[in-house]
């Protein structure tokens, strides 16, 4: 497997792409850039004399924290996901796949332009109604696809996520130094970790997350997977995709809207906009769990909030989990 990254000399990338038939006649790489923030994989913007495209490569570990193992075939999941969801409306909102190389775990896709992901929502604390509608519409369209029988079960990625969503955040001695994130957060977290009613729901939904369902999920439907470029809106990074239950994606989305705005009505709004069958109570429970794990777990967000604001969100999350 040829490892490529931002440090790889242009001649080597040129040689790799040319020898695998990924370049056009007389196409020369002029520059290689980092298109945006990411932790898991190598993502490069390749600028040539003819065009610009994105190269994404997975590794048997997390690119940013290389001591942490991660399933290599996540890039195959991403490729399969994009191939599966292609359809008239959704095509405008996902990158076209230009090539996929199974041997080197490389996906080459259309450059969607120099937009930003939507994590700025945590700062702006508000979302445009039309954008929200589009995001729910895209999710509905994704979920409406039949899951191909050979779609990867993506179990190793789910097991990784399961630990970080449903297990570690709720363990009393998980080794996370929450006070290093924000003073007072450790003490605030205790009552939620100790709550046996919460733990029981979390355990149950965690099991559901690990079992097979019938809906094609994006698997990571949050602002980091939404790109805005001018008027355009794109959904990227489906490496956690699998065949599961719709309320998982919906709940995650609801959680991030509530964390951004502190407005619990997003549960109803998103549930009502969704074109498909979903159990609102289950969506609410997933959302509550996602809010909690983002506040007291390891996978923290750029969410600048006071301890009081976090307490408000955690209480809301408790109510949503126990609804
Ligand atoms: N097709 C594309 N066109 C333009 N920019 C892109 C494209 N794909 C990715 N990017 C940019 O690169 C960033 C990282 O991509 P992506 O989220 O797919 O990587 P990742 O390694 O899986 O990240 P994470 O660790 O957050 O899961 C995106 O946030 C975006 O800014
Ligand atoms: Mg990713």
Folded structure, characterized:
By secondary structure, the chain is an alpha+beta fold. The protein folds into 2 domains: 10-110, 2-Layer Sandwich (Phosphorylase Kinase, domain 1); 116-321, Alpha-Beta Complex (Aminoglycoside 3'-phosphotransferase, Chain: A, domain 2). 44% of the residues lie in helices and 14% in strands. It has 13 helices and 10 strands. The chain has helices spanning 10-19, 74-85, 88-91, 121-124, 129-143, 155-167, 178-181, 185-194, 196-210, 246-261, 266-273, 280-296, 307-321, and strands at residues 29-33, 42-48, 52-57, 97-101, 106-110, 116-117, 215-217, 226-229, 232-235, 242-244. The chain has a 5-stranded antiparallel beta sheet, sandwiched between helices. Strand 8 (226-229) and strand 9 (232-235) form a beta hairpin. Helix 10 (246-261) runs antiparallel to helix 11 (266-273), helix 10 (246-261) packs across helix 12 (280-296) and helix 12 (280-296) packs antiparallel against helix 13. The longest helix is centred in the C-terminal third of the chain and has 17 residues, at 280-296. 36% of the residues are buried. The model has no long low-confidence stretch (mean pLDDT 97). The structure holds adenosine-5'-triphosphate and magnesium ion (MG). Adenosine-5'-triphosphate (ATP) is lined by residues 35-41, 43, 54, 56, 95, 109-112, 117, 224, 227, 236-237, 239.
Parts with pLDDT < 50 across at least 5 consecutive residues: none
The CATH class of the largest domain turns out to be Alpha Beta
Query: What order do the strands of the largest sheet run in, or round the barrel if closed?
Result: 1-2-3-5-4
**Total domains, how many?**
2
Give me the number of helical elements: 13
Average pLDDT confidence is 97
Provide the structure class.
alpha+beta
- Strand-and-helix sequence, N→C? HEEEHHEEEHHHHHHEEEEHHHH
């Amino acid at each position: 497997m040829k490892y490529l990254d931002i440090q790889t000399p242009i001649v080597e990338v040129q040689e790799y792409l040319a020898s695998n038939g990924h370049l056009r006649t007389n196409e020369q790489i002029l520059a290689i850039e980092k298109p945006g923030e990411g932790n898991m994989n190598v993502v490069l913007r390749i600028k040539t004399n003819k065009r610009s495209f994105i190269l994404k490569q997975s590794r048997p570990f997390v690119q940013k924290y290389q001591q942490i193992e991660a399933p290599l075939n996540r890039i195959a999941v991403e490729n399969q996901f994009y191939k599966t969801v292609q359809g008239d409306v959704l095509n405008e909102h996902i990158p076209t796949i230009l090539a996929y190389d199974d041997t080197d775990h490389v996906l080459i896709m259309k450059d969607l332009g120099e937009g930003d992901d939507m994590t700025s929502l945590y700062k702006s604390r508000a979302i445009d109604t039309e954008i929200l509608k589009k995001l729910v519409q895209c999710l509905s369209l994704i979920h409406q696809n039949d899951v191909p029988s050979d779609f990867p079960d993506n179990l190793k990625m789910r097991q990784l996520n399961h630990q970080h969503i449903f297990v570690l955040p709720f363990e009393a001695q998980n080794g996370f130094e929450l006070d290093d994130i924000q003073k007072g957060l450790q003490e605030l977290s205790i009552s939620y970790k100790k709550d046996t009613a919460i733990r029981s729901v979390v355990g149950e939904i965690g099991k559901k997350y690990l079992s097979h369902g019938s809906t094609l999920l994006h698997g990571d439907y949050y602002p980091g997977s939404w790109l805005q470029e001018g008027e355009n809106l794109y959904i990227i990074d489906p490496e956690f995709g699998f065949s599961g239950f719709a309320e998982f994606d919906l709940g995650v989305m609801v959680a991030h809207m509530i964390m951004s705005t502190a407005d619990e009505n997003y549960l109803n709004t998103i549930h009502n906009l969704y074109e498909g069958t979903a159990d609102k109570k289950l969506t609410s429970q997933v959302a509550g769990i996602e809010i909690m794990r983002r506040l007291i777990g390891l996978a923290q967000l750029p969410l600048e909030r006071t301890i009081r604001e976090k307490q408000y969100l955690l209480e809301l999350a408790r109510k949503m989990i126990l609804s």
